[in-house]
Amino acid sequence: MSSTRRIGPSSENTRSAILDLIRSSGTVSRIELAEMSGLTGTSITRIIKSLIDAGLVIETGFGDSTGGKRPSLIELNVLARFAVGVSLDDARLTYTVTDLGGNVVGQLVTPGIGKSRPSDVVMRMAEELETLFRDLDIPVDDVVGVGVAGAGLDIRGGAERLSLTADEWESFAVQEALELQTGLPTVRDNDAACAALGQFWAGRMPATQDFATLYMANGFGLGMMAGGHLSRGASSNLGEIGHMVVDVDGPDCWCGSRGCLEMLAAPRAVVARALQDADLSSELSISGDDRSLRHDFDQIARSAARGNERSLALIEESARYVAVAMLSVVNLLDLERIYLAGPGFTDAGAIYARHIRERITAFARTRAVHDVTVALADPGLDAAGIGAASLALQYVLTPHTRVSRPVGGLIRT
Ligand SMILES: [Zn+2]
Q1: Do residues 213 and 353 both lie within one domain?
Q2: Could you read off the pLDDT of 23-72 as tens digits, one per residue?
Q3: Does a structural domain hold residue 201?
């Protein structure tokens, strides 16, 4: 049962808010809904009738009597509608279809963005979505929307350099293009925020449990859930941990600063160090080519996980910087839980988790007060896809939770 949430009777979003109360309650009676929402019994009866007529909720039996006749119980008709989340990544696109309850009902993995043009990727996504719905036997009319998780910043214009690889994606509004191509309502957010949302939904986290999700793909991002909501920051760009300075005299970063985490610990930095070891790079077939960045990094991570000492040293050097950054995050936010997600943690996630855990256990200011859990994300490393689907569900079904978003393109970093 969720906590009481007062809903204004004149709100346009009352129906959606009631639907969300039913979702978060599991099974609930009309009387309980009236108590939780502050609406009258008559209003609740009217709204429930319209939700039943629309097939969104169903009556499932009777609750205990509190004197009069036993109240009928209502729950979400989870298979009435579906949402899809797409995690956009250089190496692969991951499509995750969930039902109304956020349960995963199907998944599809296809080749990543690579160096493809944005418009070509969007065309392909529309085709792949069509195939996915057909294979899962889901009518498109039952799909409420698409959530897209990708790396990057929300921008409001300006001439600042905004990504390492300035390309056509810089100013491309992927959600508008995909919405046009599919006719489905589309919402997007950065992958770290989506991964945190995926952990929240699929990990069944209580709203009282604040936590952060560290995401690693080509760079880093931090998603933060507080009080059951995504923390956003002033411009929805909270969590740019990749540009936290971890060495004041470190190498120049493309962002204009120096010694940033990304420059010292991201896959590109690890691959660059591996290339200085000719034997190792030939043994692992590392080319150093920009196009094979993820392949090269995965080779090193895999070989480190298997115990190759030279690879392990490279991954551990990266993990030490990540752990230093996460120690600062824990000290700033007094977190109890950190989850790791994203394709960068696929092979060596356990090594990163261990380094973060050890540093926090040894040095966190609150170490005498409470422990900090550091774990791989519960829904798996593709938590961002599940989170993006949840984002679509929330955006479409519970508009009262919408956050105003800045207008701008998705900037890949
Ligand atoms: Zn930087």
Answers
A1: yes
A2: 778 899 999 999 988 999 999 999 999 999 988 899 998 887 777 778 88
A3: no
